[in-house]
């Protein structure tokens, strides 16, 4: 038997890893399009909040808590004075008046941050400063204004109820109380509270890192001369970067990429490393140059669809790259891009950031005039909502429905939501609106 004549083990077939797939998308509605709510819920179901990390409180402002915060101390920590004045027993001054002041010997002084020298004996007063601990035996503080500010003896010209000008232990916060909850976004006031109960670090979710890319051969960077009559300025990447920033994201605006598949792939691949979410505009409709739609399936699992909305009908979503980074691909018309941000990107950003409510709360307003709407689609009309004479909200149109009307969008302060079943809203009818508050 030849030495090396052993039977060769056949090469094992290499198992190809299953390509990553998106979950089954929702079925389209009667018009062949997906509803706005279905699309939004689908995107939300495909992403998870970012992992939490410990952060110094000053750097946590605007971020979302992911733990309940329990106070280890009461606020106030001890009974203390709310005024500069004299600590007394109310019963010792119950006859005091301007006509007949009560005189008490001053037996000591309590500054803030120092203990009282001794407890207060009946029939005496002790000088006390704002925030200083009430001496034992005292139940009331007489402010300087109701005295002659005496040093040896003090003349008091007003009778006060027991407890006057005293801040009670725990009247603000009790030891063991939950003061902030997971899902709360930390405002500067909350940072003050955390510091006030002695907490210097909290577990929060990071700001989502958002990369913004615009696509189109026609685009020119603002600040540069338009080279050719066909060129336009790139408004979308600035608008979306600004919107994402105002919504609490850390934004990397990459700017414009021409309609070149290889360039687009390269740029997106390069950006994946620093993105929790990628936003693109342009190139998702049916045109020959709609390269986003052509190229993205090569980078991961994607879902291109039409949503029953106006503007913003063509929409793309994907989870791409090794980390399945979410990407939302919006149409290029500026108003379409903005409406897509409000309808889909803002809720996704909020979920990534761990905020517990994803949607803007709509308000109800009265239409100032008749507004027509496209049937079978949710129309996002640009509106101006103002307070009427009786404090009710009045909604008017800020511009026509065209998705290119950037000036009309800038003049709006609301999006009026005209439902799929609505063809016309008469003057005086109620309409739902999203007020475009930047941190809403
Ligand atoms: P698209 O979705 O690429 O077919 O673009 C639709 C329309 O939006 C075209 O008129 C584009 O010129 C315009 N558009 C696309 N991207 C931008 C952008 N970044 N800024 C302004 N207009 C844009
Ligand atoms: Mg384009």
From TrEMBL:
Catalyses which reaction(s): adenylyl-molybdopterin + molybdate = Mo-molybdopterin + AMP + H(+)
Assigned GO CC terms: cytosol
Transmembrane segments: none
Any one Gene Ontology BP term: Mo-molybdopterin cofactor biosynthetic process
Protein name per Swiss-Prot or TrEMBL: Molybdopterin molybdenumtransferase
Its EC number(s): 2.10.1.1
Domain MoaB/Mog: 211-351
Region (Disordered): 1-34
Domain of life assignment: Bacteria
UniProt entry keywords in alphabetical sequence: Magnesium, Metal-binding, Molybdenum, Molybdenum cofactor biosynthesis, Transferase
Record keyword Transmembrane helix present: no
Annotated function: Catalyzes the insertion of molybdate into adenylated molybdopterin with the concomitant release of AMP.
Pathway recorded for this protein: Cofactor biosynthesis; molybdopterin biosynthesis
């Amino acid at each position: 038997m030849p030495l090396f004549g052993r039977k060769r083990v056949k090469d094992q077939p290499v198992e190809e890893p299953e390509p990553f797939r998106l979950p089954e998308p929702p079925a389209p509605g009667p018009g062949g399009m997906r509803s706005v709510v279905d699309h939004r819920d689908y995107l939300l179901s495909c992403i998870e909040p970012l992992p939490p990390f410990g952060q110094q409180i000053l750097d946590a402002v605007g971020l979302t808590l992911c733990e309940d915060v329990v106070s280890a101390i009461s606020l106030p920590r001890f009974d203390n004075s709310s005024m500069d004045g004299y600590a007394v027993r109310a019963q010792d001054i119950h006859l005091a008046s301007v006509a007949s002041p009560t005189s008490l010997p001053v037996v000591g002084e309590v500054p803030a941050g120092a203990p009282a020298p001794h407890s207060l004996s009946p029939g005496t007063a002790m000088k006390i400063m704002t925030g200083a601990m009430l001496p034992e035996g005292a139940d009331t503080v007489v402010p300087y204004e109701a005295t002659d500010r005496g040093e040896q003896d003090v003349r008091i010209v007003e009778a006060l109820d027991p407890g006057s000008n005293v801040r009670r232990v725990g009247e603000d916060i009790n030891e063991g109380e939950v003061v902030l909850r997971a899902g709360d976004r930390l405002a500067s006031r909350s940072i003050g509270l955390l510091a006030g109960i002695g907490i210097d670090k909290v577990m929060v979710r990071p700001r989502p890192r958002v990369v913004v890319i615009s696509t189109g051969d026609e685009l020119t960077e603002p600040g540069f001369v338009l080279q050719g009559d066909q060129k336009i300025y790139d408004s979308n990447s600035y608008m979306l970067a600004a919107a994402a920033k105002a919504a609490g994201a850390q934004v990397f605006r990459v700017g414009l990429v021409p309609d070149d598949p290889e360039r687009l792939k390269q740029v997106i691949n390069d950006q994946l490393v620093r993105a929790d979410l990628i936003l693109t505009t342009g190139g998702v409709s049916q045109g020959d140059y709609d390269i986003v739609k052509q190229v993205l399936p090569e980078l991961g699992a994607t879902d291109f669809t039409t949503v029953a909305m106006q503007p913003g009908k063509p929409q793309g979503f994907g989870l791409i790259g090794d980390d399945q980074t979410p990407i939302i691909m919006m149409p290029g018309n500026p108003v379409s891009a903005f409406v897509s941000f409000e309808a889909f990107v803002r809720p996704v950003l909020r979920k990534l950031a761990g905020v517990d409510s994803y949607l803007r709360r709509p308000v109800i307003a009265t239409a100032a005039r008749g507004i027509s709407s496209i049937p079978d689609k949710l129309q996002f009309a640009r509106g101006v909502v103002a307070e009427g004479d009786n404090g009710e909200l009045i909604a008017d149109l800020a511009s026509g429905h065209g998705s290119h009307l950037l000036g009309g969008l800038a003049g709006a302060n609301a999006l009026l939501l005209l439902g799929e079943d609505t063809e016309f809203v008469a003057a005086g009818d109620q309409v739902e609106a999203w007020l475009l508050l930047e941190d809403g």
